[in-house]
Amino acid sequence: MTTVVWALRHGQRQDSVDPDWDDHADRIHDPGLTDHGHWQATQAGDRLSEVTIGEIYASPFLRAAQTAGHVAAATQASVRLEPGLGEHLNPEWFDSFPERLPEDDLAERVPRIESNYRPLLEPTFPEDHEEAQRRIGEATRRIVDDASAECVLLVGHGATIGGVVAGLAGVTDGVDAPLAGLTKLVRDGESWELAFSGETAHLEE
């Protein structure tokens, strides 16, 4: 039974520091991490190597998968690409379902991806904020039911963190989702409690 769930937002993304991103990117809505973002993800991996992460589930967007890869390298856990944890498919941000790097290509770039993992939930486009939160929450509950490890990590986006907490604890009070920030939930009988959210002590230089 899974008794501890960690959630991690991805590190700094390339398009946030490149004003010309839309002019040259192959996939404008699927940026990878910046050098600083890779550093943030490595620091998160070092922090999580202090606990026993049995399985990692990650959004299949490149920035989240790369973040998960750094944690996998530090913890030796496998990475399962779960679309249900993916970005909020907001029609104000996207004209259609955003193009992502194919999973075979992701597996070449990111260590320890499980090639035989079958996703638990596929999102649909478009979705409003409440729909995204419900989708991420449902994906989280399915992961907890499906996982064999006592401690799992879910890696995604800002919306992912709120959806994970709402999906397990039923509330979003106290949720914070800075880049590479860590959130922890602990099972208490049949319910879940939010231990903390938005921890960034591992990013202090």
Describe this structure in words.
- The mean pLDDT is 97.
- This protein is 34% helix and 18% strand.
- The protein has a six-stranded mixed sheet with strand order 3-2-4-1-5-6, with helices on both faces.
- Helix 2 runs parallel beside helix 3 (62-75) and helix 5 (129-146) crosses helix 6 (158-169).
- With 205 residues, the protein is α/β, with parallel strands linked by helices.
- The longest helix is centred in the last third of the chain and has 18 residues, at 129-146.
- The chain has six helices and six strands; from the N terminus they run E-H-H-E-H-E-H-H-E-H-E-E.
Q: What does this entry show, briefly?
A:
The chain is 34% helix and 18% strand.
Rg from Cα: 16 Å
Which percent range fits the helix content? 25-40%
Basic shape: globular
How much strand? 15-25%
| Head-to-tail CA distance between termini | 36 Å
The low-confidence parts are: none
Spatial order of the strands forming the largest sheet: 3-2-4-1-5-6
pLDDT averaged over residues: 97
SS-derived structural category:
alpha/beta
| Secondary-structure element series | EHHEHEHHEHEE
**Main sheet attributes: strand count, strand direction, barrel closure:** 6 strands, mixed
Q: How many strand units?
A: 6
Count of DSSP helices? 6
Keywords, please?
205 residues; alpha/beta; six-stranded mixed beta sheet; 6 helices; 6 strands; globular
Any chance you could write out the topology, listing elements then pairs?
Layout: E1 4-9, H1 21-24, H2 35-48, E2 55-58, H3 62-75, E3 78-81, H4 103-109, H5 129-146, E4 151-156, H6 158-169, E5 182-188, E6 191-199
Parallel strand pairs: 1-4, 2-3, 2-4
Antiparallel strand pairs: 1-5, 5-6
